[in-house]
From TrEMBL:
Keywords: Dioxygenase, Iron, Metal-binding, Oxidoreductase, Vitamin C. Its cofactor is L-ascorbate. PROSITE patterns: FE2OG_OXY (PS51471). It comes from the Eukaryota. Residues 1-67 are annotated as: Disordered. Coiled coil: none annotated. Residues 47-67 have a biased composition (Basic and acidic residues). GO terms for molecular function: dioxygenase activity; iron ion binding; L-ascorbic acid binding; oxidoreductase activity, acting on paired donors, with incorporation or reduction of molecular oxygen. Residues 7-16 have a biased composition (Low complexity). Residues 252-351 form the Fe2OG dioxygenase domain. This is Fe2OG dioxygenase domain-containing protein. Pfam families: OGFOD2-like. InterPro entries: Oxoglu/Fe-dep_dioxygenase_dom, Pro_4_hyd_alph.
Length: 399
């Protein structure tokens, strides 16, 4: 999470390197990305000759990488292999691994490797000592987790089925009923139990993100697999429909956490963008007033502090169990929670393929509101200049 006062999303740059690939992901890519050569010969080929596939090769059966020792989850290699260029599919497994490691290594610089290993050990210490309160929430059970309308829409996974349950109060912000009240209560109880354990053992835990002081990282105490399943089977189908231009069809990792607001907790959240391609935000409860989300348009790094247009302004009031789904680059914040205690579940969904592709882009007019406006203005000026030149030539020929 990054504040907008920096004029760029520093969080995306500093934390992208820590992604280890939390699961299989959506298994699709929405754009080609330039990638380095695989080292099969001494000749380094150009980036243009080594592009990842735009769409996954569904006929290709990838190798298994469960025995691979890496900072990345083995599943991400199997997912990425379907996007390799055709010339890479017939090479040895070792060559494929080297090729993919060079891609993934861009997001885990050498200086970050020790930190990633320490984080892994940190998680292992927690899970070896913490005893879950409600083990049934550690695996997704659709009928007990979700409301029937959401389950039915996911089964069909068409734009029409999603539109039937989704409201879009502002372009790119989607809201829908998602979680059962009983599941919200169980998750809240689990978080409370974890916090009691932390206080009793005086275990020093990591904050949810760089802006929230109160809450917990769900991935750190055993809920990582459940949340990855949630992303893969229930968020990816929606993201493929509504967020393809920002990697919504190639989500392959996540950061899952809860944040807490109240008089003795965080009160509000400043204007910022998330370190994600797609963000899921679901209010869990409890009783509270205030805390509205406010949205102010989608921006690339260059335009993150540009002015908000009237049509981009949205204020949203939380409803327990109701989800908000939006692009990570959609600028937003949270107004003060004036009374009570509000807890929200958030999942930042990321795409390593999209992040690789974005490194080589200069024009983000496909999704940045300000880039779109600049492009339209350039087109308007070009048309006006052409008309003026035409009128001048016609006038000259008549003299």
């Amino acid at each position: 999470m990054a504040t907008l006062s920096t004029r760029r999303s520093t969080a995306a740059a500093s934390t992208a390197g820590r992604r280890r690939g939390d699961g299989r992901g959506c298994g699709a890519a929405d754009n080609a990305a330039n990638v380095p050569p695989d080292g099969r010969s001494g000749i380094r080929q150009t980036y243009g000759d080594r592009r990842l596939r735009i769409n996954p090769n569904k006929d290709h059966k990838p190798d298994k990488y469960d025995d691979l020792k890496s900072d990345f989850d083995p599943a991400i290699f199997s997912s990425l292999e379907r996007h390799l260029p055709p010339s890479m599919l017939d090479v040895s497994k070792e060559a494929k691994i080297q090729f993919m490691k060079e891609i993934l290594g861009r997001y885990l610089p050498e200086g970050e490797r020790a930190r990633a290993q320490k984080h892994k050990e940190y998680r292992q210490r927690i899970m070896s000592a913490y005893q879950p309160l409600h083990k049934q929430i550690y695996n997704v059970d659709a009928t007990t987790f979700f409301v029937p309308s959401f389950i039915e829409a996911i089964k069909k996974s068409t734009e029409e089925s999603f539109r039937n349950i989704i409201s879009e109060p502002s372009p790119g912000v989607y809201t829908f009923a998602m979680l059962q009240p009983s599941f919200c209560e169980l998750l809240l109880a689990e978080v409370e139990n974890f916090e009691k354990w932390v206080n009793a053992t005086k275990f020093k835990t990591m904050k949810p993100n760089t802006m929230n002081k109160y809450g917990a990282v769900l991935d750190d105490f055993g809920l990582e697999a459940m949340l990855n399943n949630l992303m893969e089977k229930f968020i990816c189908p929606i993201s493929r429909v509504f967020f393809t231009e920002v990697g919504g069809s190639a989500l392959d990792s996540h950061h899952g956490f809860v944040v807490e607001y109240g008089n003795d907790k965080d009160i509000e959240l400043g204007f910022h963008v998330d370190d994600s391609e797609v963000t899921l935000n679901v209010c869990l409860g409890k009783e509270f007033s205030g805390g509205e989300l406010f949205f102010r348009g989608v921006r690339c790094d260059k335009h993150v502090n540009s002015e908000t247009q009237p049509e981009e302004i949205l204020d949203y009031s939380h409803v327990p169990g109701r989800a908000v789904l939006h692009r990570g680059r959609h600028r937003h914040g949270a107004r003060p929670t004036t009374s009570g205690h509000r807890i929200n579940l958030l999942m930042w969904c990321r795409s390593s393929v999209f992040r690789e592709m974005k490194r080589y882009q200069k024009d983000f007019s496909g999704w940045c509101g300000e880039c779109q406006r600049e492009k339209k203005e350039r087109q308007r000026q070009s048309v006006a200049a052409t008309k003026l030149a035409f009128l001048r030539s016609e006038g000259g020929s008549m003299i």
